[in-house]
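Hey, I was hoping to borrow your eyes for a little while. I've been staring at a protein lately and its backbone has me curious. You're getting the sequence in one-letter code plus the fold written as tokens. Would you mind checking whether the tokens look sensible for this chain? Here's the protein in full, and shout if anything looks odd to you:
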Amino acid sequence: MKLQYKLGIMALGIVAFTSCEKHDPFDDHVEPGQLVPTCYWEVASTAVKAGEEFSFTGKYYAEGGNVPKQSQVWYSINQADEASATLKLCGSYYSYTQTVASTQEIRTSQAMAVFPHGQSTWDGYEYVITGKVPTSSTLAPVSWMPKVWDQANYDRYFTPEFTDSFLTVVKTNLLDEKGNFPAALQNVYVSYGGFTNEYMTLINETYSVNFPTNVEEGVTGKTKSDFWHFIKDTDKKTTRCYAVVSYSNATGESFKANYDSLYKVAHTKVGRETVNKLTGPDSLLYEAMTVNPSVISFEGQDWYATYQSSEWLNCRYEPSAAAILTAVKSDYVDAVNEMLNSIPFDEWVYNKTDQNYAVSFTRKYTLDSSFKVVDTADNVGVASTNYTLDVN
């Protein structure tokens, strides 16, 4: 056996010597021929309550006449955070959720429990050690889903970058003219209580714009909804005709359109009969508006509808998008941005239906654990199996 062992070492030395690349086949802390304790272990459960202990059973033996000195349980601590927020102020028109997750090792692996060899028992084949390893109560998981807003907790769990990123995405999209974003912007204007008459007066004076300042809650004709108009009906084409205010062509020419006036002229009663008295291009215009008011052919050109809307909106059919788009007018953009910037973060995420805030933060800890045995010659044996324990 001794001869075979020496021959093996010599052969390995020859391989290392003849290799073109320098390579040390031994660990920096292990000498050639060194025998380390053999060990393995198992834990009672891979879940442990913060501040309590987890149990394990270890088994080991030493070779080459070495004597075990102690066994050790080591673990590192990893922290996993997840922060999430969901937009609610826009209602059903615009849904957006931002989630940020991160994992980091907050403490490197250390010996958390040491058991003298004298505490083990011999079962006829190997030594057996049973023990418990402590954990800190500070590793208790965190879960924050507030019904009442707590700015201090929000600042504790959410980074400024999270807030800035969330609001940048939301406010940028609200000024987009596509899809449901115009309706979502309307919902913000109508729903947010901070846009009072006094505040809108200040906005008008600061930006030389003309938002309504005689809004009265519940009074027909004076609510915020009453002051916001844009066409969003894509099916009831006859109804949509009444909202057309003008037509423009590709070269920028335009003319005003009044469907009510056209209808009255076209349907004048003569005796008991209703007669369409429009002739020539006017008659063609009336017929075209009846079929599809967004795009009409008139005098050999295509003309695109502009629809009635609030003073700060431009609602028109856009041929490149093949859709009716609603955009905030350029001279109102700064004012609208100022209004959106005035809304605090918690208002964006408040869920009126459930009466809570659509934010959540969780923090969980895990322990990456290992089992080691040290002999009296300070040789260290490490179990091949590591366990990840969830702290709850």
